[in-house]
Automatic annotation (TrEMBL):
InterPro entries noted in UniProt: DUF1684
Entry protein name: DUF1684 domain-containing protein
Highest taxon of source: Bacteria
Record-linked PANTHER family: DUF1684 DOMAIN-CONTAINING PROTEIN
Length: 247
């Protein structure tokens, strides 16, 4: 194997391990939105309600009030082997239930991919905006919104055709892309795949390795709240690289 193939294989193995975690994304068995009045939720312990400030819990020892942060990873309440994740999205609060005994987790067989190829590793040029721009996208759950800090665009050529993607920034200086292409909704998820891009060189050069185009959690579960790609990030070519729809 070449160095590129070895590094890709390591990346792929880590991705499969991540999604196969006993309390990870594939183990989720429910997504339950809370109202303002106390109510019992499915087979979960206690009663739950939410308002603009917090989640209030009655009947769960040691848990009375939780304050999940908008858009952030959830707060965890233990329930035997299960974990109840409390999240806030677009002002609303939901409970996600992670269960290591999930039938979907038991059926998990990894992540199908296209065969990696150097064809899909291209060099691009990053052009920063004068100041970050807020980009709002929809989500796989109707009514939810995601807000992203767009920091510039990357221009490159793919399949012989000039392409441009709006890119989001990370605190590390790395870039992050949400995109769709002609495979979306056919062999890949219709909403988006993601691509991490290393920090640009001093001249703005970046490498885009579409062999690492990655599924979002919503590819594996109906109980995720993932963003969809911005409309401007639709590539007209078929990017037959990276992760495909899980079986």
């Amino acid at each position: 194997m070449t160095t590129t193939e070895t590094e890709w294989a390591q990346w792929h193995a880590e991705r499969e391990r991540y999604f196969g975690d006993p309390l990870g994304w594939v183990s989720i068995t429910g997504l339950h939105w809370l109202g303002e009045d106390f109510e019992r939720v499915a087979d979960l312990p206690g009663r739950w309600r939410a308002d603009a400030d917090a989640v209030h819990v009655d009947g769960v020892p040691g848990v009375e009030r939780l304050e999940p942060v908008e858009g952030a990873p959830g707060l965890i309440v233990e329930d035997g082997e299960r974990r109840i994740e409390v999240i806030r999205r677009t002002g609303s609060v939901a409970l996600r239930v992670h269960d290591p005994a999930s039938p979907r987790l038991a059926a998990y067989r990894g992540i199908p991919t296209y065969e990696p190829s150097e064809t899909w590793v291209v060099t691009g040029t990053f052009t920063p905006y004068e100041r970050p721009s807020k980009v709002t996208t929809g989500a796989v759950v109707d009514g939810l919104r995601h807000h992203h800090d767009a920091v510039g665009v990357v221009d490159f050529t793919l399949a012989g055709t000039p392409q441009r993607l709006v890119v989001f920034g990370r605190a590390t200086g790395e870039l992050h892309v949400l995109f769709t292409d002609a495979t979306s909704g056919v062999t890949t998820h219709p909403g988006a795949r993601s691509l991490s891009v290393a920090q640009p060189d001093s001249d703005g050069s970046v490498t885009l390795d579409f062999n690492r185009a990655a599924n979002l959690p919503c590819s594996f579960t109906d109980f995720a709240t993932c963003p969809v790609a911005p409309a401007v990030n639709r590539l007209e070519v078929a990017v037959e690289a990276g992760e495909r729809l899980p079986r």
